[in-house]
Design a protein that fits this description.
The protein has four helices and two strands; from the N terminus they run H-H-H-H-E-E. It is mainly alpha-helical and 90 residues long. Helix 1 runs antiparallel to helix 4.
């Protein structure tokens, strides 16, 4: 495959760059339990969203997911699609 045929969205490039610029040894919250970010359980989705709060690449993650039209999971602290915000029962 010719590399000139490959296009990368600017949002994805920004995310990759931000990850590569992390201090050595720093891990992202989603790396330790990635299944949590794709759970269908509201409590687990809320836990994933909370895990994103201190993530240093949160804005880039959200922008990349939005640009790609992600249809499932928690990206940049937000559920995708955006209208599926999990709610806990009272």
């Amino acid at each position: 495959m010719d590399t000139q045929d490959v296009s990368v969205r600017p949002e994805h490039l920004a995310l990759i760059t931000a990850i590569l610029e992390l201090p050595s040894g720093q891990r992202l919250p989603c790396w330790d339990d990635p299944d949590l970010w794709f759970s269908t359980e509201p409590f687990e989705q809320l836990a994933a969203m909370a895990g994103c709060r201190a993530c240093p690449v949160r804005p880039q993650c959200y922008a990349a997911a939005d640009a790609a039209g992600e249809r499932f999971g928690i990206w940049g602290g937000q559920p995708f699609p955006a209208h599926t915000t999990p709610q806990l029962a009272p």
